[in-house]
Specification:
The structure holds two protein chains of two kinds.
Chain A lengths: L7 H8 L1 E4 L5 E4 L2 E5 L3 H11 L9 E4 L19 H17 L2 E3 L9 H7 L8 E4 L13 E4 L4 H9 L1 E4 L3 E8 L8 H12 L7 E6 L1 H4 L3 H9 L8 E3 L4 H7 L8 H11 L12 E6 L6 E3 L7 E3 L13 H14 L14 E4 L7 H11 L8 E3 L4 H10 L1 H8 L2 E2 L20 E4 L14 E4 L2 H10 L11
Parallel strand pairs in A: 3-4, 3-6, 4-5, 6-7, 9-10, 9-12, 10-11, 15-16, 15-18, 16-17, 18-19
Antiparallel strand pairs in A: 1-2, 2-8, 13-14
Helix pairs in contact in A: 2-5, 6-8, 12-14, 12-15
Chain B lengths: L5 E9 L6 H4 L22 H4 L22 E4 L11 H8 L4 E4 L4 H9 L3 E4 L2 H13 L4 E5 L4 E3 L5 E3 L4 H9 L3 H6 L2 H14 L6
Parallel strand pairs in B: 1-2, 2-3, 3-4
Antiparallel strand pairs in B: 1-5, 5-6, 6-7
Helix pairs in contact in B: 3-4
Classes of the chains: A alpha/beta, B alpha/beta.
């Protein structure tokens, strides 16, 4: 009997369908639910109002990341001056305790950004269906899982009450990334190029699988940067098939199975990659063979271009709505069409966020910084306490601090400023983060997103810089 | 959750396109605690449209006009509730006292968040919305009736407009059910699923 070739997405999704509602939504079983503190209190309050309990406490993990300070952490809660921020962190602790959920809190040695520690601790394994109340949840899809964002209130309380979620099955898109990237190109450059090609709505309603020789050649951490930004193209799910790179990364990590159970898992995980001839609703190709490091110039991640270029003319856009949007973006960003990117000065830089704060990101930035000095204020917030410790063991912290960087603790920090680490109004930042939206890093902040080495290059020159001109 | 059947209530017109969720509840309110059962986000609702930077009421803004105080229905323009997925936008809408939104179209996630909280969202044609706006401005303070069972909107001057409604969502609103109530109806399937899943995926230690 011939079987229909299936995509990885179909294999994992189908295995989690509990029921199908008459109108087409499907009830999906959730292997693991990560709960971050941002607005999760609304979900827990709803549980209380409705008198509901957590159905599978062991499959839920609370994590505090967005609101944690990056300084003075030894002082604990007392070190947080803003009472609203302190209260959000307290509520997460209280709610986890009351509802019987493990909490990776600010003093836990596993502490870190949820989408960083999910992989680091092997909380996510191939074939899993994972939810988290944060839009960058797709990051963990790089482990060959379906990792989806959910709402912090109703959907979260539904997950807590039932360990399931109702979802409409998305369409499937494959992004084929081919070619061998030149030296100096990171997975951040690759995903920014994909964003520029897809546009902010290009992935809407789709689960994206990233495939191709260039993806296979990427390290596991680099793959997470790719999946992380799926939502910037409107896709809630981004995935990469598990392979030896994935298994070598996971094997031996804290929550990974061991011995016979690991072997059983491996047998199943090997069945997950998309079958030859499986059909996608949409396929897109990107060649990275002659890629140039990317920077963003506008207020949407799709507004990204090679560093060797210049700020586009709004008139070059055919679509009048896009033209108007680009005009507004340039006005907000205070840059003129035709300006060469390398002539744009920056006032500060930030290295961190769930996109680019892992050990390889820090190593890549440090390679540029070694023996150089920053000329603008610069800070780095490692993706987890574990990453921070490892960097310190490798002496990378010294390279950062010798160059003039502030070496902070781990938090979502200046990516969206919810902990108070913000880019001041009108200040221009080169950032390794995922969103250059108006006001994302703080009210009136002007953000250019790029790779960690590109941010390091901007830090030492004080302007957007082609990192290849500094490193041969 | 309060069942939604028929609502006859004061309606206010809001002819502004693309009011995104960040305008419905500005980001700075997201870390503000909302006490269970208290309308703590009422102040946040469309805050920067209702108040100027000195926190003074903008008297010309439609929701600040005396005739529209206490409105329970808002008649909105295209793409109301687009933008970020923040669920607090639905809470702010509810806390402000609104029980239904009638509009040309709503942001997808906002739309479903409203329905989850028992706020009915009704989509009508732009022509019908424009006529509603005209009638509400001609006689400020007049009432509109929404009949969910029969899927009709009755304007102050007596026009009756029919609207489409997903049957599942309609049933849930009429019964006052949220998603968890619905899922509980599938409990035997869920338990059977878990049993077989746990046996197969032993390495997950579920």
């Amino acid at each position: 009997m011939a079987t229909t070739p299936l995509t990885m997405f179909q294999k994992i999704w189908d295995r989690h369908v509990v029921a199908r509602a008459p109108e087409g939504e499907e009830l999906l079983f959730i292997d693991r639910s990560l709960i971050i503190e941002g607005a999760a209190f609304l979900g827990f309050d709803r549980m209380r109002i409705m008198g509901r309990t957590v159905r599978k406490p062991r499959q839920n993990i609370a994590i505090t990341d967005h609101y944690l300070p990056t300084l003075n952490r030894a002082a604990g809660l007392a070190g947080i001056a803003n009472p609203e921020i302190r209260r959000v962190i307290e509520m997460q602790e209280e709610n986890a305790l009351e509802f019987g959920i493990e909490h990776i809190n600010m003093t836990d040695k596993r502490q870190g950004i949820s989408h960083v520690i999910a992989g680091e601790q092997a909380m996510v394994l191939p074939g899993m269906l994972v939810t988290c109340n944060d839009s960058h949840t797709a990051t963990s899809g790089a482990l060959g899982a379906i990792a989806m964002p959910i709402g912090a209130s109703n959907q979260l309380s539904h997950v807590l009450s039932t360990q399931t979620v109702w979802q409409q099955r998305p369409k499937m898109m494959r992004v084929n990334i081919e070619g061998i990237p030149p030296v100096g190109i990171t997975s951040k450059d690759i995903i920014l190029a994909v964003m520029a090609k897809l546009g902010i709505g290009g992935g809407a309603g789709h689960a994206i699988e990233y495939a191709g020789a260039a993806v296979r050649a990427l390290s596991q951490e680099a793959r997470m940067t790719i999946c992380n930004m799926s939502v910037e193209a409107g896709a809630r799910i981004g995935m990469i098939a598990p392979d030896d790179t994935t298994l070598n990364y996971l094997n031996g990590r804290a929550s990974a199975p061991t011995g016979e159970q690991w072997e059983k898992g491996v047998v199943y995980w090997r069945t997950l990659p998309t079958d030859a001839d499986a059909a996608f609703d949409k396929e897109v190709g990107v060649d990275v063979g002659d890629m140039i490091p990317m920077v963003s110039w506008g207020t949407s991640p799709e507004d990204s271009a090679p560093i060797t270029g210049s700020v586009p003319e709004p008139a070059s856009y055919d679509d009048p709505i896009q033209r108007q949007r680009v005009e507004q973006a340039l006005e907000y960003m205070q840059i003129k069409p035709g300006t060469r990117f390398t002539d744009i000065p920056v006032n500060q830089v930030f290295i961190g966020s769930c996109t680019n704060s892992r050990i390889e990101d820090l190593r890549a930035a440090a390679a540029v910084l070694k023996g150089r000095k920053v000329v603008v204020p610069a800070m780095v917030s490692p993706g987890s306490t574990g990453v921070k410790k490892q960097a310190e063991a490798e002496g990378i912290d010294r390279i950062f601090t010798d160059a003039g960087f502030e070496w902070r603790d781990s938090s979502c920090s200046m990516c969206n400023g919810s902990n108070g680490d913000i880019v001041e109004p009108g200040s221009r930042s080169a950032s390794t983060t995922n969103r250059n939206f108006e006001g994302r890093q703080g009210p009136g902040a002007l953000t250019h997103i790029m790779s960690p080495p590109m941010v390091a290059a901007a830090a030492v020159t004080g302007k957007l810089t082609d990192v290849r001109s500094l490193v041969q | 959750m309060t069942p939604f059947t028929t609502l006859t209530a004061l309606a206010a017109p809001l002819d502004v396109v693309k009011i995104d969720t960040g305008m419905i509840i500005p980001g700075r309110y997201n870390r503000k605690y909302r006490r269970p059962g208290f309308p703590d986000y009422a102040e946040a609702f469309l805050h920067d449209l209702r108040f100027d930077t000195a926190e003074k009421l903008r008297p010309d803004f439609v929701l600040n006009q005396p005739a529209f105080q206490g409105a329970e229905i808002l008649v909105t323009a295209l793409d109301f509730g687009c933008g970020s997925s923040r669920e607090t936008a639905a809470y702010a809408t509810m806390d402000f006292g609104l029980r239904a939104l009638i509009g040309v179209g709503f942001g997808d996630i906002f739309h479903s968040n409203c329905l989850q909280n028992g706020i009915l969202t009704v989509v009508l044609l732009q022509l019908e919305i424009s006529e509603l706006w005209r009638q509400l401005l001609a006689k400020p303070g007049s009432k509109v009736t929404i009949d969910l069972e029969n899927q009709t909107v009755t304007t102050p001057e007596g026009n009756i407009y029919a609207f489409d409604m997903d049957p599942t969502r309609k049933r849930r609103l009429l019964l006052g059910q949220d998603d968890v109530d619905v899922t509980m109806e599938y409990m035997s399937q869920l338990e059977a699923f878990e049993e077989s899943y746990r046996k197969e995926m032993t390495w997950l230690n579920l």
